[in-house]
Structure formats: structure tokens, C-alpha cells
Known about the structure:
mainly beta, Immunoglobulin-like, six-stranded antiparallel β-sheet, 26 strands, 36% strand
Amino acid sequence: xxxxxxxxxxxxxxxxxxxxxxxxxxxxxxxxxxxxxxxxxxxxxxxxxxxxxxxxxxxxxxxxxxxxxxxxxxxxxxxxxxxxxxxxxxxxxxxxxxxxxxxxxxxxxxxxxxxxxxxxxxxxxxxxxxxxxxxxxxxxxxxxxxxxxxxxxxxxxxxxxxxxxxxxxxxxxxxxxxxxxxxxxxxxxxxxxxxxxxxxxxxxxxxxxxxxxxxxxxxxxxxxxxxxxxxxxxxxxxxxxxxxxxxxxxxxxxxxxxxxxxxxxxxxxxxxxxxxxxxxxxxxxxxxxxxxxxxxxxxxxxxxxxxxxxxxxxxxxxxxxxxxxxxxxxxxxxxxxxxxxxxxxxxxxxxxxxxxxxxxxxxxxxxxxxxxxxxxxxxxxxxxxxxxxxxxxxxxxxxxxxxxxxxxxxxxxxxxxxxxxxxxxxxxxxxxxxxxxxxxxxxxxxx
Length: 447
């Protein structure tokens, strides 16, 4: 989501409310310089987060709108006041200040309801919101108060996070449905090539007759197929699957079989947009950041360079017996049970080489070398390195260094910077509260 904000950063002027483009969802205007970016391909991840929030708000998105502008101090409060003046009741569903300000909310006004995300990071604000089609209200409205747990409220069975079923034997090769005029159709497969039921497909396109941007949501059936009738136009899609692991909900993106999320079909002729669940591999069009992969990521952070900057001060002492330069550190990830798709995991081994114990002039920001010597990163921090694209599961992690003369030196690990004392730690990933997207896991290591 943070990368979406960076991609959509524009040269926008900052001014008062009610001077910019008019919203298509409520009777109000945005600030001068705001730009409506509904339909932008960079919004795929953010749109998935919005659908998750809609589920938590007790419904599903009908019509969506996305607006971006340069951040303005205090504008979030003004936004709430304007909506209150229009008669809307505002309920905060969840909020986090990690890497910026991200708030999920619900608006109600009589029988009308909306849900949305206010995302503010790196000087850019992105508002994504949608009108809601509410599910049958059998639960108490108190489920949407700010003190309620951030779980889907009255979700449909297909949209709710589910525990991964045990894998079954693969069947015959599945074929996509035959194209149908006036429809967008497709086939969703799991990691083993079997039909994947309950996957959510988000379809966005432009109609031929009026040139309108429009969107639809479909859910795959037991045979893995989906079909939704749409106005004649050109459409592209993204898809996701919801699962839980170790009590954490995850919304995981699916891979387009075409290799790109920009593939389009002409609905006047009919066409398929097919997807497959991948545990590892690069996302289409992505770079090399940790969240550009389908798999999970560990940020390995060294207690040193100096320790008081990156770890607890108790680990600031210079380690004279540390593994010397060019020792090879081996990280072993051993699965503890099945992976998130229900399949059996395999051990994963990753390695890196240690840096000099005392390079000429010392390391940056040390006096002269603090407690560190393992250069994990290549940029200014020098203290960490990402290990990306692990199949999502629960793992036991251990680390040992093999010195140039063949000695084995065990390293100590920890999940907090004040407790780096363990030969092995158990890795359990979590998700972002607003979007249920997979978070990176930090692990501390020291000599």
C-alpha cells in the first residue's frame, strides 16, 4: 500500500477544501489539486485492501472512487467534519501509524453506507472508498464500534478468511470456460493446479458507449471458474484468496496466467482472465523490494554497527571472537507443519558472507566499530538484509557461521532487540490490520 502511494505521488497544490474535483459518491468536492485516479493499474493492491475493509464493514463494494493529493496537516479531521455536515455517521474500523497513517472507516446515512481507507505516507494522501451493498444484518451493530476486534462483520461465506483445507489429489488438467459475449470469465487454480473456490476477482474497465470507468467483483465457484455480466467494454482484473495461519488473516494476491495485470478482454466478444495461486515468485511488473514477491520475507537485522543504534545497548560490546571476514553464514528455515496452502513445506537454506571485523576507518556511525562487524546491507544502514520469497508457513530458524578455516561458529537469534539469545527462533508472520496483506518479519542476529 505504501508503494502505491509513492507511485501515485503527483505534483499537486495544497489548498482549502471544496475547490477541486467533485466526488461521485458524496455531494462534496475535494481540495484544489486533488486528482481522481479511479481505474489506475497501480491501484490493484489498494483496491484489494478496500474490498477487505468493505467486508469488515459488513458488505461489499458496489462503486469505488480513488483520489490522491499532497498531504495537508489536519485534513483528516476536516474530512470527518465535512462528512458529518453532510449527515454521515463516521465509524473508525481500524487504524495504524506504522510507516504513515492508515485508517479504515465506515460511513452511514440512513440506508446508505460507504467504507473506505485514508492512507497518508511520505507526503501523499490517497483516499479509496466505495458505496456498500450490505449483507443481512443478523449481528448487533456494536460489532462496528471502535473497540470491536478487527474481524469481518457479517461476511459472506466466500469472502471470509478460511482455514486452509488439506490438499487433495490433483485431478485432470483444468480448462478455462468458453468465452461468452457480454461476460468476463476465467479459471482460478490453486498451487497444485486444482480448482480454487472462493477466490475474489476484481474487474475494472471502460465501457464502449459512455467511456465510463466501472468495476465489478466476482467469486470463483467450486469448479474454480467465475463469470460476470458486464457492459460492452474493455476490462482487466486482479484476484486474491483469503486464508488464516497461526490466527492471522491473510489476503494473498494471485498470479495472472497471462503474466501481467494489464491483460484486457473485450466483453462484447467475451474473454477469459485466468489466475493461479503461487507461493513464491515475482509479482508481475515488480522490482526487487521484499513485497515484490509472492513469498514471505525476513529482514535480518544485526545487533551492532553500533548496537545502540540498531539493537539493545547490552549488545554493544565488541565481540573479539566473532567469525572473521568471509565467513559464510548459513540460515536454515525448517517448516513446522504445512504451508498456508495445506501442502508440505521443505527446508530452505540461505547464505551470506561476513564483512571485515575492522575495516579501514571503521564502519559508519561507530566508535570506531561498536559491537558490529557483519555488513548485511549495501546502503547506508549497513545493518540489515532482506531474505525474500519464502513459501508462507511457520518455520524454525537457525544460523551458523563457517569460518574460512572450516570452523563452525553458532550465531544467536531473537525476535526482539532485547532478547537475542537463542540458537533457534520460531517464525510466524502477521498481516497489516487494514488490508490483511502480508507483513515482513524482522529477526535479530548477533555473534
